[in-house]
Design brief:
Length: 257
């Protein structure tokens, strides 16, 4: 029945969702056995909207347990008559309060939340202080010392370019290639003393941003020199890079298509 198949294809829509979530209570984005994931939770809401039909939501990437998102993207195929821009309003009442769809729209048939990505921007938040701020315990990393902003920015700029980032990958990642391109990296500080490390690249290895953050922090407190970053990259030795910053300070900020 090719005519019927063609009609069904014409009826279906490819919907992009932009999602914000607090990852504190989740095992990460990706569906896992015996653990609560963001993907499962959003797919369950989509299933309710589709009267019990199982809907697969394609995510732009994985995020680890405890990691947050301000601009995560996913897409799914639907035959509902709801306009693309209205799906956010339809789905949000079905979600827990720590997940929200902040934008939805209909995309071309060939759009894919993962494979259509041109770059991603992550941010990592950390702050110094004698004591940890209890209001930030799940949102930012409490560090020791008073890091030097100029030194951290010098270190961050050393990441820009196309390199083999094996030294910045945690054990457990099995990519087909460890070469990535970093387009921009910098550190800013706000009037309240919160530092934000921002990095944009064509992709990231397992725990790469968290290790980059720890290395930038080490440069800020004098444990390594900013000029040594290129040598650390060239060494492909994880032991030469900085500490892996904890998950709760990391945010997927923006996905560029």
């Amino acid at each position: 029945m090719p005519e019927l198949s063609a009609q069904l294809c014409l009826m279906s829509k490819n919907i992009l969702l932009k999602i914000q979530y607090d990852g504190t209570n989740y095992s990460g984005w990706q569906t896992q056995n015996n653990a609560k994931a963001i993907q499962d939770t959003v797919e369950a809401a989509l299933s309710v909207l589709h009267k019990g039909e199982k809907i697969q939501l394609i995510g732009c990437s994985r995020t680890d347990a405890g990691v947050h998102a301000l601009g995560y993207c996913g897409n799914f195929i639907t035959d509902l008559s709801i306009p693309g821009e209205k799906f956010a309003f339809a789905i949000n009442p079905l979600l827990p309060e720590d997940i929200r769809i902040v934008h939805s729209e209909e995309m071309p048939e060939d759009f894919h939340a993962r494979y259509s990505v041109k770059s991603k921007t992550y941010i990592y938040k950390f702050y110094p202080g004698t004591f940890e701020n209890p209001l930030l315990r799940n949102q930012a990393w409490h560090i020791k010392g008073s890091p030097d902003l100029e030194a951290m920015n010098k270190a961050a700029k050393e990441f820009v370019g196309t390199y083999d980032f094996t030294a910045f990958m945690a054990t457990g990642g099995y990519p087909t290639t460890t070469t990535r391109t970093i387009f921009d990296a910098s550190v800013t500080v706000d009037p309240q003393g919160m530092f934000t490390f921002s990095v944009t690249g064509d992709g990231f290895l397992y725990n790469m941003v968290r290790i980059m953050t720890g290395t930038v922090y080490y440069a800020g407190v004098g444990k390594i020199s900013p000029e040594s970053i290129k040598d650390i990259i060239a060494s492909k030795d994880r032991k030469k890079a900085g500490v892996t910053a904890p998950a709760h300070g990391l945010y997927l900020f923006k996905v560029n298509y």
